């Protein structure tokens, strides 16, 4: 977009905002969301009111501002606009004329800013200063809703000429992190029971030092420190330097709580079986758990720690934890059980260091390093000292090898106290679309509560369906487990069966089931049931839970009914934002209600990033699929395309329907050529070329549906004429026939059409013409005109 300030007669603006001040008391940079449009570091100025830049707002929604000479025409979408009359001091929107107050506008740096109150005339506005979030729900359709948006991003099915014109009207900016910044500080006070409860005060501080991000969190209960953590990341590549409480990712202590000093990777591992996935995050932030790419569960962090309990973990499941900060940005932590987790490229290395104590207050000193001797083989070694009553010292070694035939990990360790060494081994194979994992441990130390353990797991994935079988032998206990699960978007179904044999306890059968699904208004319903059949009898345990922790509403709640052993309990958790930064809390359980309060305040001391005019590269990714039900989105069961696409004359593979294109220029219009995806002659995209504008420093998801399409050919008896194609009463295409009346209408979706022109009015079905017949007609017509490429052949 051309700069608004350069194309407008600024004197008229000064008349319009005669009472405006140039000075400003506070700037906030927030995440601005308008339906599917997102813009980070969007500027909000706080004076007597809150103001946003009119030009910035119009740029986000891809509108346009035009000075007509008498007023300002603001095109909000292809069919919706508003007018600002500077002399009459009016705003006209949807034929309604609104009188504008002087204090609703201000001029800053020769740009026009409008108040959020004025923006509410165009739709619903939600501004949360603590979360640094501005949401706008317009009372009009946006541009992408008219241009055929595909899933989460919009795609331009237009001519290259028009796309180039759009590029000249759009400016792209990026955000650059500062080397040094005072950052921001957030304080939170909470008491869940004002009558007898504990007083909790949490302090979170974030800043930038030498380009890395420094964060500190301190939680207190009744004046005593209960949790503390200082983290410095983005300075040692993917490493975090942590002082305080964190999770270890050592082979002996996967994801165990640890307090001290650590240099560690972002990712961490879990043990097989039913497990708890927990970690640390700022109080009040939202944490989402994704299982195999689908949202599995989410919660709001309380007291600096999150915990997802009783989660089934095995070699066929990949978990990702997303932790959202106050700006709605998130960091991800991967939980990876593949045996090649620490596989390094040739010459590459990785390491982890820990110095402190475990949850049992045992002193721990540990370190490990991995080095890639070839592309497929990594050697690792380390040392671990655990000062408990047995004063264990370990030397660790590992070999990690991966190939197309035999991915193999083997670890071993030895102790210095003269006992036989603990031996750990793990073999991971991929055979005939099955993941097979064999793990064994022979333990002589007291770190484990068993002497011998063996586990064999075999699982497979078919589209969104997962299943696996597991056999575990631990000392005198044997266990067989079958798990079936289905994940679709945000809905998941799980069922399982466990047969357990213990020498002292006898046999038991456990039947499990779980369903998690989104509900209206951002809520989520979760239902779980276990039927435990033992020699002594049968027990049923269940929990039904309705929760909404999305933070998109002032009301958050959780309602649950739970039965364990012989007791049935119900409960209610409510929190409501009374005013900005103050939340009322009500909990009810065990026939007792408790009222509480939570107050929070964020103070921005200094911006951690600045907006730069420099352009940056972006990236494009998405899915290509056969859209059988013509709804424009991918549905379970629809086939995924395989092949290659062209981008800047470079081929990119599409495997299982997924593609990724990096280093997309943000200075030019880019085109994706998908003409090769005519795997079946009748399956095509709406266009062979999809034009995409690069966006500085941000990725775009573009899903491309393939639908059944065909062609119609014929001859008009009256010679050359205009052909009009109707679907029902809707005109969908118009083109000229050849001089002799011959025409070919290409790439029409399967269906019936009415063709009008040159005295012809007839109904055609696209599926009636065979592809070979269409090509023959093309060839004949090309020979007649002696122009072999007249129709693109």
From TrEMBL:
Q: Which GO terms describe its molecular function?
A: fimbrial usher porin activity
| One annotated GO biological process | pilus assembly
Taxonomically, the superkingdom here is Bacteria
Alphabetical GO CC annotations of the entry are: cell outer membrane
Query: What InterPro entries does the entry give?
Result: Fimb_usher
Q: What is this protein called?
A: Carboxypeptidase regulatory-like domain-containing protein
């Amino acid at each position: 977009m051309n700069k608004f300030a350069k194309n407008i007669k600024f004197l008229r603006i000064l008349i319009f905002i005669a009472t405006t001040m140039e000075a400003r008391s506070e700037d906030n940079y927030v995440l601005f969301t308008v339906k599917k449009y997102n813009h980070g570091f969007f500027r909000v100025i706080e004076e007597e009111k809150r103001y946003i830049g009119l030009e910035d707002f119009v740029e986000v929604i891809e509108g346009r501002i035009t000075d007509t000479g008498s007023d300002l025409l603001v095109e909000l979408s292809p069919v919706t606009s508003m007018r600002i009359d500077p002399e009459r001091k009016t705003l006209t929107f949807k034929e309604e004329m609104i009188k504008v107050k002087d204090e609703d506008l201000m001029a800053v740096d020769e740009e026009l800013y409008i108040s959020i109150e004025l923006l509410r005339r165009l739709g619903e506005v939600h501004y949360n200063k603590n979360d640094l979030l501005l949401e706008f729900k317009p009372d009009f359709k946006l541009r992408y809703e008219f241009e055929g948006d595909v899933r989460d991003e919009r795609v331009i099915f237009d001519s290259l000429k028009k796309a180039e014109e759009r590029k000249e009207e759009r400016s792209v900016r990026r955000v650059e992190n500062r080397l040094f910044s005072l950052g921001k500080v957030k304080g939170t006070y909470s008491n869940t029971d004002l009558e007898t409860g504990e007083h909790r005060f949490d302090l979170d501080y974030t800043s930038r030092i030498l380009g890395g991000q420094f964060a500190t969190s301190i939680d207190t209960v009744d004046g005593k420190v209960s949790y503390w953590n200082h983290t410095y990341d983005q300075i040692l590549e993917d490493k975090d330097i942590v002082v305080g409480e964190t999770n270890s990712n050592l082979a002996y202590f996967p994801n165990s709580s640890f307090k001290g000093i650590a240099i560690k990777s972002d990712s961490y591992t879990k043990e097989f079986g039913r497990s708890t996935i927990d970690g640390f995050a700022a109080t009040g932030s939202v944490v989402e758990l994704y299982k195999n790419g689908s949202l599995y569960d989410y919660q709001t962090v309380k007291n600096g720690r999150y915990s997802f309990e009783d989660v089934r973990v095995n070699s066929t499941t990949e978990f990702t934890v997303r932790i959202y900060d106050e700006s709605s940005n998130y960091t991800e932590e991967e939980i990876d059980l593949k045996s090649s987790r620490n596989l390094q490229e040739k010459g590459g290395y990785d390491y982890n260091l820990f110095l402190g104590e475990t949850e049992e207050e045992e002193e721990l000193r540990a370190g490990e390093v991995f080095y890639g001797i070839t592309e497929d083989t990594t050697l690792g070694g380390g040392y671990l000292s655990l000062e408990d009553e047995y004063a264990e010292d370990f030397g660790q070694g590992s070999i990690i090898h991966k190939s197309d035939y035999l991915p193999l990990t083997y670890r071993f360790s030895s102790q210095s106290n003269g006992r036989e060494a603990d031996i750990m081994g793990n073999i991971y194979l991929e055979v005939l679309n099955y993941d097979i994992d064999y793990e064994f441990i022979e333990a002589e130390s007291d770190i484990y509560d068993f002497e011998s353990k063996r586990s064999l797991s075999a699982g497979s994935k078919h589209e969104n369906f997962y299943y696996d079988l597991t056999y575990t032998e631990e000392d005198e206990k044997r266990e067989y487990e079958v798990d079936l699960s289905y994940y679709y978007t945000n809905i998941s179904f799980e069922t399982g069966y466990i047969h357990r044999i213990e020498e002292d306890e006898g046999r038991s059968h456990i039947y499990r089931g779980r369903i998690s699904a989104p509900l209206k208004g951002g809520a989520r319903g979760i239902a779980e049931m276990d039927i435990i059949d033992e020699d002594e009898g049968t027990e049923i345990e269940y929990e039904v839970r309705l929760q909404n922790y999305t933070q998109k509403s002032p009301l958050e709640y959780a309602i649950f009914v739970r039965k364990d052993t012989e007791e049935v309990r119900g409960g209610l958790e409510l929190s409501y934002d009374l005013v900005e930064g103050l939340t009322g809390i009500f909990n009810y359980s065990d026939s007792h209600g408790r009222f509480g309060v939570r107050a929070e305040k964020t103070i921005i001391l200094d911006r951690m990033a600045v907006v730069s005019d420099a352009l940056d590269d972006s990236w494009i990714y998405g899915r290509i699929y056969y859209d059988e039900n013509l709804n424009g989105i991918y549905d379970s069961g629809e086939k995924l395309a395989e092949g290659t696409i062209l981008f800047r004359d470079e081929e990119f593979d599409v495997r299982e329907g997924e593609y990724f294109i990096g280093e997309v220029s943000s200075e030019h219009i880019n085109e994706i050529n998908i003409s090769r995806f005519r795997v079946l002659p009748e399956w095509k995209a709406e266009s062979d070329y999809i034009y995409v504008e690069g966006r500085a420093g941000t990725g775009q998801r573009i899903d491309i549906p393939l639908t059944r399409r065909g062609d119609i050919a014929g001859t008009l008896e009256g010679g050359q004429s205009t052909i009009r194609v109707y679907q029902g009463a809707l005109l969908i295409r118009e083109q000229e026939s050849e001089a002799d009346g011959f025409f070919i209408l290409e790439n029409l979706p399967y269906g019936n059409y009415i063709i009008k022109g040159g005295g012809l009015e007839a109904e055609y079905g696209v599926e009636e013409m065979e592809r070979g017949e269409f090509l023959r007609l093309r060839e004949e017509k090309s020979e007649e005109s002696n122009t072999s490429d007249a129709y693109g052949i």
